[in-house]
Amino acid sequence: MTEAHEQEPARETLTWERFGTAARELAEQVADSGYRPDLILSIARGGLFVAGALGYALGVKNLAVMNVEFYTGVGERLPLPVMLPPVPNAVDLSGATVLVADDVADTGATLRLVRDFCGGQVADVRCAVVYEKPGSEVRCEYVWRRTPLWINFPWSTLPPVVT
C-alpha cells in the first residue's frame, strides 16, 4: 500500500450534540453519587466547556479556572504540565468541596498537578472528565467514556481562524 492509501489512525470524535449528552450524563453521575461541590475548578482550555455545562446542570454558580499547559500539539507535550498565571488563591478554596473538570484524562499528569494543588486546602476534591484514557495515572471519580484513541473535540478539531 502506498502512503496515499494508508488509513489515518482511528479516532474518537465528539460532536457538539454528543458533548451535550456527555455533559448531562456526567452531571447525573455526580448528582447520583450524592457529591455536592461548592466549586467547580475548570482546567483550561478544554475543561472550560465541561465546567460550564456541569455548573449549569448541577446548579453550581461558583466556577474557577486553572490554566495548565501540557500539550503543544497532537501527541506533543511538555515534559511536565505547567501552571500558568493567574493561579487561584488557595485561601479561596479553603474548606470547599471541589469538582475538578477537564475534557480528558490522558496521562493524568495535569489532573494530578491540580489535585496536588488542592490537597490539604479543600474538604474534598473529585475529578470529572468526558474521557479517560487507560494510561491515566489519575482514576477520575466521574467519567463519561473510556477510550485509548486520540479524541477529536468539537472545540479543537478545526484550526484557529487567526494565525
Automatic annotation (TrEMBL):
Molecular functions per Gene Ontology: glycosyltransferase activity
This protein's UniProt keywords: Glycosyltransferase, Transferase
Domain Phosphoribosyltransferase: 15-157
Organism superkingdom: Bacteria
Gene3D superfamilies assigned to the protein according to its UniProt record, in alphabetical order: 3.40.50.2020
Pfam families: Pribosyltran (PF00156)
SUPFAM superfamilies, per database record: PRTase-like
Full protein name: Phosphoribosyltransferase
Organism encoding this protein: Pseudonocardia ailaonensis
